[in-house]
Amino acid sequence: MSRVRSSRSLFSHHAVLSWLLLLLLGINNAMSELEERQTYIIHMDHSYKPDSFSTHESWHLSTLKSVSTSPVNHKEMLLYSYSHVMQGFSARLTPSELSQLEKSPAHRATYRETFGKLFTTHTTKFLGLKPNSGIWPAASYGDGVIIGIIDTGIWPESRSFSDKGMSPVPERWKGQCEYGTAFSQSCCNRKLVGARSFSKGLIAAGRNISTELDFDSARDNVGHGTHTSSTAAGNYVVGASHFGYARGSARGVAPRAHLAMYKVLWATDTYESAATDVLAGMDQAIVDGVDIMSLSLGFDQTPYFSDVIAIASLSAIEQGIFVVCATGNDGGTSSTHNGAPWIMTVGAGTIDRSFVATMTLGNGLVVEGTSYFPQSIYITNAPLYYGRGDANKETCKLSALDPNEVAGKVVLCDNEYSIPSLVLPTNSGTSVLEYVTGMSNATVKALRFVSTKLGTKPAPQVAYFSSRGPDPISPGVLKPDILAPGADVLAAVAPNVPFMQIGDYDLVTDYALFSGTSMAAPHVAGVAALLKAVHSDWSPAAIRSAIMTTANTIDNIGSAFRDQWTGLPASPLDFGAGHINPNKAMDPGLIFDMDLQDYVEFLCGLGYTRKQMSAILRRNQWNCSGKPNDLNYPSFVAIFTKGAESPKVRNFSRVLTNVGNDTATYQAVVEVPTGMRIKTEPSILTFTSKNQKRGFVVTVEIDADSPSVTYGYLKWIDQHKHTVSSPIVAIYNK
Questions:
Q1: Alpha helix (H) residue ranges in 37-94
Q2: Which domains are seen in the chain, by residue range?
Q3: Among 43, 84, 224, 722, which one carries the catalytic annotation?
Q4: Which residue has the higher pLDDT, 27 or 464?
Q5: Where are the alpha helices (DSSP H) in 88-139?
């Protein structure tokens, strides 16, 4: 059909077209009016609140009413009022309303709604936790400490959250169990002491929360929050299993600690979290009185003054709350999230347990690979197929394989897929590839699934997905801080969601395996709870220092940690100070302590404007000394730039506080590679009482032909067997 029309035909319909045009304009105007309202987080200066308002929320509502340009319900405009993470609120505003509000002297900063993503057992034994010695009995398994989990919700009926043997809920606790879909106050107990949900931000942004897959309550829909909660502080469970894997027990790191869930992630198309909801959850956790806050999610990396997690975490730290965050699963260089220096940023490591399948080829070669296929299957004398010469068949792309070609055969693929399979390491895979391409009748003599292997070596390794440094916001602060178990972690999940499909059957389970830095973070939260139980007077910085300076730096074969993906040696840019060692962290000897003013001085050195400083510090007055100030961090990063005039020497100042024996003498011991030199002044630190402080200066020097990344260690060793270890990384930007 021809699409050409005469001008006469067009003009003869002029009246109709005009009417349609006006109608469309009206519709577009109505749509633009609806689309004009966007969600913003408004940071206010609470010193401007008139005394006539009894609450901040009433002041916020009045403020919204004063700038409103249309007849709307102001309570519907207001999503949340924040009182701790910042003084302010989140609301749906038109551009003109926002403009009016920003003219107010009480306005401090505006943040447009953003969306974050989820960074998605035997591990307690791997961490060296024992019931009769070390930190577990010393901390009474975390008794009395409250861990707040910011995640996808919780499945309260899981046996991991039984309150058998739990002490009463601490009197200081102010939280509660919210009523909601399939959730009531009876869901809480002495283990799960609180559960709340926050979704106003997602709903206001038009995200469709599934009513079929999710619950309008703190109940978990995918099992992730249940998993992280049980990892941090799940109670003892006998007979936990993952379809035959890991039969035995699943136990959290701090099994006598109390838990509180703040659900901010929901079943939407993207499983995103709204910044407004995350802020509300963190704000409520501070109000309720948590001791530890664990987040397994993150937003795009931005400067601290516009990073909602960084701002909220600094407020929590000021209240003495230890904040643990996952570093992310992006895997590449300079991909770390949640890297503010007041946050404990956690990377993921492997453990010494693997789930394997074993294959014997027709030529007698035996290879072993990772397999999560749950059925006990034994395959014998099957042809081995490889789609040689066809890239799609070689990688087993969807619909590329001809069923008639592969029926009854074992298929070799060059990528990951989920049907019954084993994943081979590169060297074994190469051997199989050589065999199948060199034989016209290649066969598999035997293939056996479902085998749990303990004592896997080397372990730990840096998990292939774990985000690495240098940190994109502050490369001079080593991130991640620490490595913790994050691969194949067994813990509780929501049993109403099918975990996997075998044939025509959907399989469900109470316990399952997950991997991600989101699994590593709750391990550290659990260890922090144990340390808090033993050392109730320690600051968040003291807890972080104890964890970092006592970390393991070699694997179970006595070598430096390796990268799981490449098999090559990793660096502190990948694993931070090392792999967490809870028992050693209980008695670190010395700590690098800090308070709010240390972080203020750090921020003063970033060149932020007064408005930006006010946004992150949540106040109008602060003190910048103006003197060069090194953050008293337990690790060191020296950044050098290529050039004849560029110095290859960097000095750092640090202060150590004695938390060990009353009297102790520490000797500096330096471990450095060729081309790097580290000196300390003084080289001996003498302490005559607890809480005594001693300062020192570290000088780092590298050769002009040094590699782009090199590292060593500074270790302070005393006569009481304390070793206080700090990684020192030199980055040479050539």
A1: 56-67, 74-77
A2: 38-112 (no CATH), 136-352+461-585 (3.40.50.200), 353-454 (3.50.30.30), 589-594+631-732 (2.60.40.2310)
A3: 224
A4: 464
A5: 95-102, 123-126, 135-138
Residue among 543, 542, 520, 517 at smallest CA distance from 530: 543
Q: Residue 219 contacts by C-beta under 8 Å, 6 or more apart in sequence? A: 153, 154, 155, 156, 180, 181, 182, 183, 187
300 assigned to active site: no
Residue of 421, 518, 635, 706 marked catalytic: 518
CA distance 83 to 703: 51
Q: Write down the H helix ranges in 1-73.
A: 7-12, 14-36, 56-67
Task: Residue count of the chain, please give it.
Answer: 734
Which of 92-96, 122-126, 141-145, 404-408 has maximum average pLDDT? 141-145
Residues 87, 287 contacting (CB under 8 angstroms): no
Mean pLDDT of 178-204: 95
Q: Are 61 and 78 in contact (CB under 8 A)?
A: yes
Q: Would you state the structure tokens that stand for residue 503, as one six-digit string? A: 């044939």
At 379-413, the pLDDT tens digits run 889 999 999 999 899 888 878 989 899 998 999 98
Catalytic residue among 43, 60, 122, 151: 151
The residue behind tokens 């060149």 is: 607
**Is position 334 annotated as part of the catalytic site?**
no
Separation between Cα atoms, residue 414 and residue 437, nearest integer Å: 13
Q: Token pair for residue 119? A: 């960074």
Confidence of residue 109 (pLDDT cuts 50, 70, 90): very high
Instruction: Report d(CA 436, CA 361) in Å as an integer.
Output: 9
Is-catalytic flag, 84? no
Q: What are the DSSP E strand ranges found in 338-377?
A: 344-349, 353-361, 366-370
